[in-house]
## 1
Amino acid sequence: MELSLTVNGQPAVVDVPPGTTLLEVLRDELGLTGTKEVCDEGECGACTVIVDGRPLDACIYAAHAADRAEVLTVEGLAAGDELTDLQRAFVEAGSVQCGFCTPGFLVMATHLLETAAELSEEQVRRGLAGNLCRCTGYAQIVDAVLAVGRGA
Ligand code: FES
Ligand code: FES
């Protein structure tokens, strides 16, 4: 099954068997290993990517559904080596510990910041409810997102 998609602004063509997930395309075919595979069941959000403007769990998203789609992964957030404001805020707030959840949080929180005019703490927590972190207790992650939302 040949698929054409745009990933982080770059055209990509892959040939994968039916049943392949978008996560497998990203990691195994395109070498974009920033998107993490943790639960593989759509429960933890570690594999969050944006497809045609919509956040979703790549581990349970059929690759064929992404044919001709625009996909944004964690690798596409920053321009070159320059961290985004949110990535810098994560570092400064101590939001990264083991780091396995971090790509998914960054993608989801970037989407939240881009799609909401203003974000309260409750909106941030609700928006990130599908992303699980075993290490931080969430406070540092929420603080980082709020800091960027406030323009701090
Ligand atoms: S790895 Fe996809 S939701 Fe957990
Ligand atoms: S930093 Fe370890 S799971 Fe979130």
## 2
Amino acid sequence: MLDLDAEVTAGQLAELTARIAELAGDHPVRDVLDIGAGTGTGTFALLRRFPEATVTAIDTSDEMLRHLHESATRHDVADRVRPLRADLDEAWPAIGHADLVWASSSMHHMADPDRVLRDIHATLRPGGLLAMIEMEQMPRFLPDDLGFGRPGMEARCHVLLDEARAEHLPHIGSDWPSRLIAAGFTIRESRDVTVGLRSPLPETAIRYAYATLGRIRSRMADQLSADDRSTLDTLLDKDDPNALHTRSDLRVLSTRSVWIATPR
Ligand SMILES: C[S@@+](CC[C@H](N)C(=O)[O-])C[C@H]1O[C@@H](n2cnc3c(N)ncnc32)[C@H](O)[C@@H]1O
């Protein structure tokens, strides 16, 4: 799903990394850290933008890092990527200084994000940049009134998802600008990155819809009403005439907030 998200947001990511390059100005971007790198969406976007850069991709998950390493090998950039297994909740690894730190959809996973922000601050060279991205809203795919039997199925799913996320991830949606400033950063730019795709959708976006709604169906099965379960089953059944890939009203809507900050 992370790789599908990367493909769907590739254009917006390229614009964002171009803006980071502008803000970096004459400061060389060689040592880059990708915090909670996952499958490498940020790592690969940054390698493309900064040809002199090497990226240390940090994650707790061996599986994510293996996937990232395989992609790096496939794209012939493995010599510019250093996958590093580390749990940033435990301690900041000994990785030296950085010119750019990228933290996309990862900071809200940290048990103590303020401590991690202070560690990032200490790691950045003077003039270095932190690009922090947090998803404002999980991606949506369906019209608001959709629901066979009861309209508004996707919105109800998102209420349940938000409740589950708030319970497990208490820092989600927190006041990141204040936290950045408290950790010693000056925010140079805040912006929203919006993905809004409508029919005809590329094949990747349709697969992204199947993957996301399929995950909601399996993770939320017990909490969904019978009506909503049945709506999802219909949409996810590729042989059904109402399946996702047949629908001209399928879309992708998602918004992320971005802060680009530098140590004070
Ligand atoms: C939602 S994913 C985001 C992945 C990637 N940055 C992206 O934008 O697609 C969050 C990632 O943070 C990692 N993560 C969560 N807690 C972490 C921690 N304490 N230390 C290091 N990585 C962590 C997870 O394993 C996961 O790969």
## 3
Amino acid sequence: MIQIDHNFSGTAIIHGDTLSVLKEIPDGVFGGIITDPPYASGAADQNARQMTTSQKYSSAKPKNVLPDFEGDAKDQRSWTRWMTEWLTEARRCTRSGAPICMFIDWRQLPNMTDALQWAGWIWRGVLVWDKVNSRPQRGRFRQQAEFMVWGSNGHMPSDRAAPVLPGVFRQPMPAFTKRIHQTEKPLSVMRELVKIVEPGGIILDPFAGAGTTVLAVKQEGYSAVGIELSPHYAEAAMRRLEQADGTTDEPASAA
Ligand SMILES: C[S@@+](CC[C@H](N)C(=O)[O-])C[C@H]1O[C@@H](n2cnc3c(N)ncnc32)[C@H](O)[C@@H]1O
């Protein structure tokens, strides 16, 4: 495995299980964590939660069939326990005062904020990602938003070298035909989020998927390490970074 320590610079995607990989990394290496873990959600009951990720998250579009991804079938208790374990290990690998920011949906939001605090992080708030488009349902509110839970590894000084950032981001998901991951996040939103980390910090994405966070980090001039368990997506992320030419999608608007 590539050596990840305080001297690391550039970008790397590591193919492996986050918890095992983090155990090999020294204390206090990362300047921040920006991630999008498997939600193990997308369904109201246990049977539905154990469907494949394409059954849960993709409308059947035969032109762009994307492989399923890992870790999305846990029940809520197991998911919360597992979240607490990797968040504990990730905090050890993160500098004091460093921020963390994690995507989640409405069902798992309370479990994520529990896990964050059980792992010793300070919970600082919830950001909103307005996805603009969502399935209309008669007699129901639209599930139009996902959320980003954020916090810090202990005290976070107010004079950190980070800008004022919005609390609401408005940007549709990447078009289905252009996506390389079933739950790919918009690059422009990721480029805003990574700015919460002070310049010079190494950013960790422990669930890299198709490498959107790591690409955003690269475009914003930081260093980053992404970890991904699925061989298909680890490979896709590596290829995406190699091919990155500095182009981006539409800028996210702060709502
Ligand atoms: C929600 S997706 C991330 C998508 C990513 N934000 C993007 O834009 O492409 C979560 C990813 O975490 C990976 N994963 C699940 N369990 C993992 C584990 N234990 N270690 C590392 N990666 C894992 C899944 O294979 C999946 O690709």
